Structure of Membrane transport protein MMPL domain-containing protein:
Amino acid sequence: MKSLSTSQRAGLFAFASLVACLLCAWLLFGRGTSPLQTDVLTLLPATERHPLAEDAVERLARASGDRMVLLVHDKDDDTAKDAARELGAALSPDPAFASVIAELPPFDLDQLVTPFLPFRFHLLTPEDRAALTTPGFDPVDALKRRLNQPFGANVGAKLTDDPFGWMQHWLDRQPWNRSALVPEDDLLTVRRDDGTYVLVIATLRGSSYDDVVQRRALAALERAEGAMAAKHPGTALLRTGAIFYAASARAGAEHDTHVVGIASTVGIALLLLLVFRSLRPLLIAFVSTALGVIGAIAATVLVFGQLHLLTLVFGAALLGEAVDYSIQYLCARANAGRQWNAERGVRQVRPALLLALATSLLGYSLLAVVPFPFLRQMAVFAITGMAVACASVFWLLPALAQKPARTPLAPGLVRLALGWQRIASGRRALLGVAMLCVVAIPGWLRLGHDDDIHLLISPPKALETQTATIRDVAGFGGGSQFWLVEGASAEEVLQREEALTDRLQAWVADGKLGGWTGLTAMLPSARRQASNIAALAPLFTPRERMTAWLGQAGFRADGSAGFVAAWPGRAFTLDDWLAMPAYTPFRYLWMSGGEHGVGSIVVPQGQDDANLLRAAADGLPGVSLVDKPASITALFGRYRGYADVWLGGALALVGLAFLWRYGVRAAWRVLLPPALGIVLSVAALGYLGEPLTLFHVMALMLVLGVGANYAVFLREGEPHVAHLPGAAYAGVLLSAVTALLSFGLLALSTMPALRHFGLTLLLGIGFTALLAPVSAPAPKNRTA
């Protein structure tokens, strides 16, 4: 079968590239919703022991819904209230919001109480149940004390409906009565020593992670806040909500993308112009790289259904490595001079490019093994981008670079490369390597490690401070720790949660815990309700006894008749709880109907000591503490240990590939530069006081892949440029500098994980590029 000609291959590749470009454009802009993702939760791996716990983590994280929680603060009470009203009035008409609540609508408190009346006898506090079962309980005395009690401000039942106050006591335990926020002048208000806080809640018309929704809502808030600040200069606005965290992540990623993408593109363009002294090689290199990035974006969205902005930041840095393949081809063209033949040039660079591609893909493939969605996205993005960029050299570039280069490589770069190559090759270089290894030992000994989750997610401190204040003042915003209660049925879950909350109640009494939010404070188990009925039964058997006691205490017969007739009422069920509008904000506490089983969530308040919280679940079946940050931190540490092993395995695999290609005598020389790059990079991190993290080790795998490329490029290129000493190494240095311009800029990222990637690659690529001459015999005309 006749092989395809250069123009035919280029035509097929151009057609495939056009299809990829159209596909990429449709995936990004043609489906109505953007695949760009800013939700930090999608970066986190599954760390819990089973899917129900992971469902609980996500449910709790999204409990606040797509809304802004705003707290207006001022030292003056009237000013705070006026500012809150004006803020609500400014936000309400904006189409970015589905609803804005500042002033409370008129409502009848009886509407909050009346739904509970049929269940009143089944709902008792532990204290009332204990009092009823204590020998010597005097119903008449209890009724008289109730009649003489002052009435509080909390929501409660009428005296005739609740003569003993049992229902009132139970309602006092409900979440809306435990909040520090109190209705005042139709506003939810908290008074502190530093002034008055007023709550405003704005519900978004769409997802917090939708870019359009974010921009519209934040712009509306900025306008409203500006107007508020202008009229009330001393008033402060605190905020929390998923939208602010998502917007912060998006802003950081966009900043990183611009810094890395624009700076590296401009830097690489200027460098290529200086080295090749022609615009055509620059355009060819960027066409090859752009096709790689477009293919990478399309493949990542197809595989994952989305593209996280942080992956896009990494993709911007990938420019520096993807351009290596076209640079090597263009260097071969420049070095060939008038004897250039495009097809022969492909055959010349093919072994080096394929071997280099294999080592790079090995490093990126190991990233896909780690159970972090972020790293897996990076792996797919990089593997696709590198493969497409390399394929473009074989299929497209020969048609674009048919004519010989007008000028050779910049003589200054070649002279610089030759000078360093003479120093860094031969026996003298091996002695220098040994000395560097000795110098590296103290750096290794100084090395520590850090597996904190904030390496992956680092929200702005100002936003974290505001969230903490809102949680403290108003009780909004949950923590990241909670107890998960599981069972075979709803009743078993409720009984197990009650075993936990009975223990927590004792902790609250001892001052170990500030409180908790759980389902059984609102919905007792059927067994607990049965015990409540059993405790009350002696008072209503016969009913006439209760009627007589009420009369003795001073209640009129016509008023107390309804209370006696209502006994025993009916049990309060899960369906009743779910149907009550008052409990809608707390439905996230109950987990059922899903494929992962039945469970409930109990959220602690006023305590974040994981060891203490874990002790609360000791010995309780079906109860466990879920601590997502601690789980991820532990996972970071575990996979950091695994990554060390993987790095050693990858080094062995690359060594075997070099052994197959170069034989025993030369393979160790080609492997030495990337291996030394890893050793010296880790030592440098130790000297810099940088604790070793999972992301440093992952970056070292890329140092292995990229560093192996440079050794291969030099080893394979030397025989073809014997007439131009230093030209092959000049091409390696050019590739290294372009990589440093891209990956090195990640060291300026706002995200710690990318910063660690960038710093490690900056060190590793630099060391490997400088040590690459060790892989080739010293030039014959060296003067050593």
